[in-house]
Amino acid sequence: AALFMENARKGSIVSRANSIGSTSASSVPNTDDEDSDYHQEAYKESYKDRRRRAHSQAEQKRRDAIKKGYDDLQAIVPTCEQQDFSIGSQKLSKAIVLQKTIDYIQFLHKEKKKQEEEVSTLRKDVMALKIMKVNYEQIVKAHQDNPNEGKDQVSDELKFNVFQGIMDSLFQSFNASISVTSFQELSACVFSWIEEHCKPQTLRDIVIGVLHQLKSQLY
């Protein structure tokens, strides 16, 4: 009986200990699960922060690139460096920079076209000079081959009279057509006069007219 009572007492103690352990274990929070949730949330927040930071950096780079582009335009376009009295000393706005850039590009296109036209004219002049050179070389060669041909037939005075008659006729039209108010106007008038009064047919008529006037001296 004593042994039975002792065993019963030990069983009761073990049962109460198990009960207390179970209660204590149930009251302790599940730290493993909570730690996992916390780390997941921290990771999510960190990912969002990284995306936000990357977006901000990309946006800043874009703004810096645009700003550098406008700064480069102001440095390249001469009219952007000139003082604009309508806005005083204020910094040029982006709209003004773009408009001045457009105007400058259009100006460059006009200048390019003008230079191309001048180059074309100069090429024609060079071609004409080459033709004249060939003709004069042929005249010189013919004179060298026949040095006595035509000698003393036309005097230097008569040659000068022919030249003077041609020049006088040209000067009359030149003097009537040319304005000397300014160099720009003079240049424009000269080209206009050349195109109108120095055509091959016009020069031919002038030469024929002068020769008719001096034919008494020729024969």
From TrEMBL:
<comment type="function">
    <text>Transcription regulator. Forms a sequence-specific DNA-binding protein complex with MAD1, MAD4, MNT, WBSCR14 and MLXIP which recognizes the core sequence 5'-CACGTG-3'. The TCFL4-MAD1, TCFL4-MAD4, TCFL4-WBSCR14 complexes are transcriptional repressors. Plays a role in transcriptional activation of glycolytic target genes. Involved in glucose-responsive gene regulation.</text>
</comment>
<feature type="compositionally biased region" description="Polar residues">
    <location>
        <begin position="15"/>
        <end position="30"/>
    </location>
</feature>
<dbReference type="GO" id="GO:0046983">
    <property type="term" value="F:protein dimerization activity"/>
</dbReference>
<keyword id="KW-0597">Phosphoprotein</keyword>
<keyword id="KW-0678">Repressor</keyword>
<protein>
    <recommendedName>
        <fullName>Max-like protein X</fullName>
    </recommendedName>
</protein>
<dbReference type="GO" id="GO:0005737">
    <property type="term" value="C:cytoplasm"/>
</dbReference>
<comment type="subunit">
    <text>Efficient DNA binding requires dimerization with another bHLH protein. Binds DNA as a heterodimer with MAD1, MAD4, MNT, WBSCR14 and MLXIP. Can also bind DNA as a homodimer.</text>
</comment>
<feature type="compositionally biased region" description="Basic and acidic residues">
    <location>
        <begin position="37"/>
        <end position="48"/>
    </location>
</feature>
<dbReference type="Pfam" id="PF00010">
    <property type="entry name" value="HLH"/>
</dbReference>
<keyword id="KW-0010">Activator</keyword>
<dbReference type="GO" id="GO:0000978">
    <property type="term" value="F:RNA polymerase II cis-regulatory region sequence-specific DNA binding"/>
</dbReference>
<dbReference type="InterPro" id="IPR011598">
    <property type="entry name" value="bHLH_dom"/>
</dbReference>
<feature type="domain" description="BHLH">
    <location>
        <begin position="50"/>
        <end position="108"/>
    </location>
</feature>
<keyword id="KW-0175">Coiled coil</keyword>
<dbReference type="GO" id="GO:0045944">
    <property type="term" value="P:positive regulation of transcription by RNA polymerase II"/>
</dbReference>
<keyword id="KW-0238">DNA-binding</keyword>
<feature type="compositionally biased region" description="Basic and acidic residues">
    <location>
        <begin position="56"/>
        <end position="65"/>
    </location>
</feature>
<keyword id="KW-0805">Transcription regulation</keyword>
<keyword id="KW-0539">Nucleus</keyword>
<dbReference type="InterPro" id="IPR052207">
    <property type="entry name" value="Max-like/E-box_TFs"/>
</dbReference>
<dbReference type="GO" id="GO:0000981">
    <property type="term" value="F:DNA-binding transcription factor activity, RNA polymerase II-specific"/>
</dbReference>
<dbReference type="GO" id="GO:0061629">
    <property type="term" value="F:RNA polymerase II-specific DNA-binding transcription factor binding"/>
</dbReference>
<keyword id="KW-0963">Cytoplasm</keyword>
<dbReference type="GO" id="GO:0005654">
    <property type="term" value="C:nucleoplasm"/>
</dbReference>
<feature type="region of interest" description="Disordered">
    <location>
        <begin position="1"/>
        <end position="65"/>
    </location>
</feature>
<feature type="coiled-coil region">
    <location>
        <begin position="105"/>
        <end position="132"/>
    </location>
</feature>
<dbReference type="InterPro" id="IPR036638">
    <property type="entry name" value="HLH_DNA-bd_sf"/>
</dbReference>
<keyword id="KW-0804">Transcription</keyword>
